[in-house]
What we know:
Largest sheet: 5 strands, mixed
Number of strands: 11
InterPro entries: OxRdtase_Mopterin-bd_sf (IPR036374)
Number of helices: 4
Strand order of the largest sheet: 2-1-11-5-6
Organism: Streptomyces drozdowiczii
Bound molecules: ligand MTE, molybdenum atom
Radius of gyration: 16 Å
Distance between the termini: 36 Å
Shape: globular
Helix content: 10-25%
CATH topology: Sulfite Oxidase, Chain A, domain 2
Protein name: Molybdopterin-dependent oxidoreductase
CATH superfamily: Oxidoreductase, molybdopterin-binding domain
Amino acid sequence: MNRPSTAPRPTPPGTFALWGDLADPVTLSVARLRRDWEQHRADVVFDCATSGPQRHAFAGPLLREVVAAALPRFAPLRRKERSRLLLAVSGGDGHHAVLSWAEIDADFGNAPVLLATRMDGRDLDEAGTQLVVPSDRCGARYVSAVTGIWLGRHHREGAAPAVV
Ligand SMILES: Nc1nc2c(c(=O)[nH]1)N[C@H]1C(S)=C(S)[C@@H](COP(=O)(O)O)O[C@H]1N2
Ligand SMILES: [Mo]
């Protein structure tokens, strides 16, 4: 963790940028997610406010393993430093969802959040990876066609606003 990187340029179709408070942003393809990390399965049901319950079968690596392996300097952070990390996941259509790192960290919430390489028997190489949050009841954080994942630290700047 050191100097902030700038926002990435648009990535090639089906790929996403991993960037933020990190020395070296990387661009990852679905093929690389499949090749370089163990694939986990998740059969999920989530609810959508507009279209009702959806059932899907996903496979892909754990988000925490991709972030930790792609950014080796991150791994040695102590638990107390990890507790203020944030992740923002962006779809190419402008849909965004945030997670706290602690939700997925094995020392904290340990949620098996995936970056899918496959959905319902179809590879996602062309569409791009999809965030899979099996512990969510609602589908809004299942961001599809992911183009960016930002990792950053919360910074408290100045005094808290006065309570009115
Ligand atoms: N990129 C992107 N991903 C998205 C959304 C979106 O608008 N854009 N909508 C979310 C919402 S609200 C739901 S309920 C699910 C819908 O999943 P479905 O395609 O299986 O219905 O996708 C989620 N992922
Ligand atoms: Mo939804």
